[in-house]
Design goal:
The structure is a single chain. This protein is an all-alpha fold. The protein has two domains: about 60 residues, Helicase, Ruva Protein, domain 3 (Orthogonal Bundle); about 60 residues, Ribosomal protein S13/S18, C-terminal domain (30s ribosomal protein s13, domain 2, Irregular). It has seven helices and two strands. A two-stranded antiparallel sheet has the order 1-2. A hairpin with a 2-residue loop joins strand 1 and strand 2. The chain is elongated and about 100 Å long.
């Protein structure tokens, strides 16, 4: 099993499809890295030699991936919150930060729906019309 940037790449996939398993590497960057490393994109991960894995490792290290990238993103969000920008406030409230509507949808950010029921009229009438009971044993 090939391990690059702290991520185990799947053995049965082509290297071109396996590299995007690393956070920060998408399909386009994966193709670019493979071309730069001079490796056949159709080769399976399990068929790569140690030399080819070393080339890939060195090429991936040139980019900000995994932990470094996650830390940078969190730092950017924290900075927005500290300066009190609109986007920072939206991040803090766990709401969409890029102008999406929230009246409907936005389930990914806001979470599962919470149904708020209404009180039925007959229940309200019963609670209003029942007189307060006097404690037993006391008579006037």
């Amino acid at each position: 099993m090939a391990r690059i940037a702290g991520v185990d790449l799947p053995n049965e996939k082509r290297i071109e499809a396996a590299l995007p398993y690393i956070f920060g590497i998408g399909p386009t960057l994966a193709k670019k890295i493979i071309v730069d490393a001079n490796i056949d994109p159709n080769k399976r991960t399990k068929n790569l030699s140690e030399e080819e894995l070393g080339k890939l490792q060195r090429k991936v290290e040139e980019y900000r991936v995994e932990g470094d990238l996650r830390r940078e993103i969190q730092g950017n969000i924290k900075r927005l919150q500290e300066i009190g920008s609109y986007r920072g406030i939206r991040h803090a409230k766990n709401l969409p930060a890029r102008g999406q509507r929230t009246r409907t949808n936005a389930r990914t950010k806001r979470g599962k729906r919470i149904t708020i029921g209404t009180i039925r009229k007959d229940v309200v009438q019963k609670t209003e019309t029942t007189p307060a009971r006097e404690p037993a044993g006391e008579k006037k």
